[in-house]
Amino acid sequence: MGNKNTIVAVGAILAILGSLTYLYFTEFSRGPTLNLKPFENLGYTVAEETAALLGNQGRVVVVTELIEVMKSANSEAQIKGFKAGLAKKGGVTVKELKDIKRSMDGDPRLWPAGQAAQVAQAGDGASATVLFMSLPMQMSKDDLAALKEAKTKLVVVTAQSPTLKPLLQQGVIQLAIVSRFPPKPPPAGKETPRQWFDRVYMVVKPDALGELP
User: Fold this and answer.
1) Do the domain assignments include residue 117?
2) Are the CB atoms for 157 and 50 separated by under 8 Å?
């Protein structure tokens, strides 16, 4: 990896860690009990954006990453919100929920060998595959080729990654929900769930990259 790529990768990792730390202390750490409402709000809005992408019709496969076979309360809250959002829209349904299992071994910045192929094949028979998992910091030619074989639209909920923009520009990913770093400042008064979402996340598409670096 060249010096420029190294700097980009390190910067992206620091951005992810900083974003997660910020969200924890500003949104989630308000007492002894974890506040899962922001995760539900995220899932709900992802459902709205996915339904809009599909013209409010079709079926989706939802994929999460399961680390060391440990269920995550955050992921479960996101899925709960996602299902609620689809139910509210009334057109798109969940075909299946799938977990992609991985161990703690290996470089956490990268996808293990074969994971891209699992992602590409997960949504067979559906209108879209919705990934609640961050993209890797680097992607091999084999992984890119595997993702291009996906027979459904790919929607990803991810932290910022150097691989995201090229995947959008190539049309491999059709919709991405990306965490902002840093998030926009909170308003003085109350904010709606959608206002919170737009402050903490951004919606990007191949033809609307917005503020994506």
Assistant:
1) yes
2) no
Q: How many domains does the chain have?
A: 1
Residue type at position 44: Y
Does the residue 91 lie in any domain? yes
Boundaries of domain holding 112: 3-204
Q: What are phi and psi of 31, to 5 degrees?
A: 130, 180
| Order of strands, sheet of 175-179, starting from the edge strand that comes earlier in the sequence | 92-102, 58-67, 128-132, 153-158, 175-179, 201-204
Cα angle, residue 45 at apex, residues 68 and 164 outer, rounded to 5°: 60
pTM of the model: 0.82
What is the percentage of the chain residues whose pLDDT exceeds 70? 84
Name the helix (H) or strand (E) containing 14.
helix 3-23
| 95 falls within a domain | yes
The average pLDDT across 186-197 equals: 93
Residue 81 lies in a domain: yes
Cα(209)–Cα(109) distance, rounded to whole angstroms? 23
